[in-house]
Amino acid sequence: MDFVYADRLQQLPPYLFAEIDRAKAEALQKGMDVIDLGVGDPDIPTPAPIVEALKKAAEKPVNYRYPSYAGMLSFRQAAAEWYQKRFDVELNPQTEVLTLIGSKEGIAHLPLAFINPGDIALVPTPAYPVYHIGTLFAGGKSYFMPLLEENNFLPDLDKIPSDIAQRAKIMFLNYPNNPTAAVAEAEFFEKAIFFAKKNEIMICHDAAYTELYYDNYKPISFLNLPGAKEVGIEIHSLSKTYNMTGWRIGFAVGNPSVIAGLGKVKSNIDSGVFQAVQEAGIIALRSDEALVEANRKIYQERRDVMVKGLREIGFDLNPPKATFYLWVKVPQGYDSASFCTRLLKEAGIVVTPGSGFGEPGEGYFRIALTVDKARLEEAVERMKNIAL
Ligand SMILES: *Cc1c(COP(=O)(O)O)cnc(C)c1O
Predict the structure, then answer these.
(1) How high does pLDDT run on average in the chain?
(2) Residues 137, 189: one domain?
(3) Which atom of ligand 1 is nearest to the CA of 238?
(4) Are residues 159 and 96 in the same domain?
(5) What residues pair up with 50 in beta bridges, in sequence order?
């Protein structure tokens, strides 16, 4: 029998990376040496002390039982301490911190707690797809806020019609940003908080990339700003900071009523994060900053190799201050898809078409710096050898 998908699955946006996935599979089948700069998944291993902590914790039978829904208090305490140390933000670990099975899980479930069918969420575009899809699954509608280069890839809140603003329940933000690598300063967050208060909107700030920063730049937390905790939460992840994408651990922090609502959804759907992973997470959050610094150094070197190479080829770009992405304009005569297809077919390089992240991403492509320096140098050489 072939069962028919529910409407919510039928409503999913078309998968725009299908063509590039197909072309990649074809290239691999032909035996091509493919350089994959497509996926935002660190190639660097999780630091040894964190892995050791997991091994030890995995031997403790107390960890084999159901974890607490909100997460171990000790993990939530470590997260609160980390926020205090890193961002100078005070959090009550009992009421203002919630362990997540990765930030994707928290983002996807948040709308189930606060969006009724027909309600509006303000969703950036181009963006990580989960903000829109979480909204859709809750029966809500996304109002898309374009992120344009002329606005430094920040949404222009003044352009949101007042009837939409009044009806909106959640605004999703993400800085440092995937895919544009843009960053946001206090001034923008202050504006967003003012907007949220005025229109009684909750802000959900996805802060997955705050620890991947370069040069003299250091991202702030949305919760650094006065009034932020009254209007929203920040979602953090250990995935990118400690190369732990496969471990599935993150946390939400901020407004206690939002944390409680998200916790209520989760306690009815999942049963928390394996305690051994939370124990390893505590070691990660309490680890020496040198561990993350080593990571940043690697990405910074890769960024510099790629930016220099792309500039030599004739691309016009500035080195990003944060994230492990480069967001680059396609050359004259191409759109995102045709450029990415050509790069794959002729140079064996996978990059992501910007249009796949949303319509204003058309005309761009995204490079993920998740392969080593030598491979990036090889990618640059290959690009030089095809006339773009
Ligand atoms: C990688 C990424 C995350 C992290 O997801 P996890 O579920 O924590 O692994 C969150 N948001 C964005 C924008 C990302 O790119």
Answers:
(1) 96
(2) yes
(3) 8
(4) yes
(5) none
